[in-house]
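anyone else get weird line breaks when pasting these?? whatever heres mine. first is seq + tokens for prot A
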Amino acid sequence: MDLVTDGFVKAFNHFDSFKKMGDDDPEKQLMAWLKRIMINCAIDELRKSQMLPEIGGIPDLVWELSDKNHDADQLLLYKDLIILIKELPANYRIVFNLYVIDGYTHSEIADMLHISIGTSKSNLSRARTLLQTAVQKMEEGKLCRI
């Protein structure tokens, strides 16, 4: 709750820096801006408490998500992918989740994590390579996660 409060305080103090871009829905733009502030507040708090490697974790809530349009095979693959992402080294997992799931650019990730843009790109590439290798092994029957 403290982080959410801090995030809203930062948003209200810097509301003049919010700029509407283009003809997109201003409400969506405001929500994206607030989301970015909240995520940055959480990352700052993790940095302060020396828990940065824990960023990029995937909440257990994702196990409960199910889409009625997917069959059992797709659900199993989804769960396998979640497990594989959780097993990535922390620095790869953090960049992968921030880029792929949260939609940040490499420049933004580099600023947040105090790394170079090249390191961000490299970590993403290595994460993808590790995931592709693991999926190939899984498809060959060499790796079973569930």
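and prot B, same format (seq, then tokens)
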Amino acid sequence: MSLAIVYSRATNGIDAPLVTVETHLSNGMANFNIVGLPEKAVKESKDRVRSALMNTQFEFPVRRITINLAPADLPKEGGRYDLSIALGILAASEQIPQDVLEKYEFIGELALSGELRPVRGILPLVLGAYRSGRQLIVPQANAQEAALVQQANVLSAKHLLEVCAHLRGEQALPACVSDAPKQAAVPLLDLADVKGQPVAKRALAIAAAGQHSLLFIGPPGTGKTMLASRLPGILPELNDHEALEAAAIASVSGVGFDPVQWKQIPFRAPHHTGSSAALVGGGRPPRPGEISLAHRGVLFLDELPEFHRHVLESLREPLESGSVTISRAAFQTCFPAHFQFIAAMNPCPCGFAGSNKNACRCMPDQVTRYLGKISGPLLDRIDMHVEVARITQAELATCGKEINESSVAVREKIIAARQLQHARQGKCNAALTVPELDSVATLAREAVSLLQQVMKKFNYSARVYHRMIKVARTIADLDGEKAVTAAHCSEALGYRSLDRLRKSIYGQ
């Protein structure tokens, strides 16, 4: 009898729990069994492994072979265990040395010829191997992505024979080296392309400086989508830790992560026909949805009322908690979701409610139903509602690209405001808790009186009250002032256009 132990890793959300591949050869009728809660693709690996070993001139043992993937209660999926299973059989049959296996972890799917094929979700696996202190061997097709974790020691191989030669000490495998750019490319979309709309541009800068959620409201063709799509161009670039988090989520998704996109701010803009599962995530095995794919970036929902109400309601918890938990009968997975929420909508189905230039064709009950698709609790979680009015032909003809409106100029102000916030409280203003807010945003007496009057008039909740103070704190940071004055609060109150629109249209 012979026993060999090889290490590999599974995927559970963006975590990569260790899997011990135990291989036992015993006498008896020739058989090949895989146990340890494998799904169908894992069970089929025995045919891939058998053909790969025979086609690479190794001896396939004609004995009873038992493969145990421990822990037994952790579901195993995909072809990522092929390489570990093949090496376990070779080590148990004494065709490669066993004593060196404990230093490595192995990931890779085998072709029938013995070539190594890439697997999904490589970044969490690299991070897990790095924390365990072992070297990881991956397929060469995954080398660029694996090399993004610069502190990890990762080797790459094209073929099973190369891995065996390395373990025998005959020829060392090359280390993974990344060719990805160290910094993201400068975004092509410039804020100066948006003509006019100084109020909306100011609101976008405030939202970027404090990481506030923002809703643009206005008739069709006023530039709401143009403004939202230029938000990544004025945001500070991701640091290495944030970029690695965003890349890890993309790595475990069905699409995968392209190393060329390293340090690029995620910008997700799902269509309004998408389901709640597409937005939140799901499936078996669970994969991240648009909310998690926007982690450390921007989630933009255009035509907000056209989304199904239950889809919009799924945003409420992630906006508060910064994470998404997918719970099913057989499993529970948590994905991070720290994103900046931006949305755009028309004021009514035809788009011209409240306009003095175009007549609205909607009946009052149509407008009520249209605005009612966005619930009060969701609106409470959106910090700023900004009206984007239609500009005249004369304004459109005279507006040019002003240098102080470019994304580069605006980004410098936002970086300065972010640095001020992180030096003061270690986070952006939008993430402040109520006790933290009380300590960093002490209001003047005039500001308190102003907020109380508005709270009474519009019947705002305590959540809206605190969010308005956070916006006022960000405005003060952009202006370089330590105190939050009545002027800052007054500007913050001006960014609640939807509340005034609801009251003017149907008296709410």
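btw re prot B: The longest helix spans residues 407-425. The chain is about 40% helix and 15% strand.
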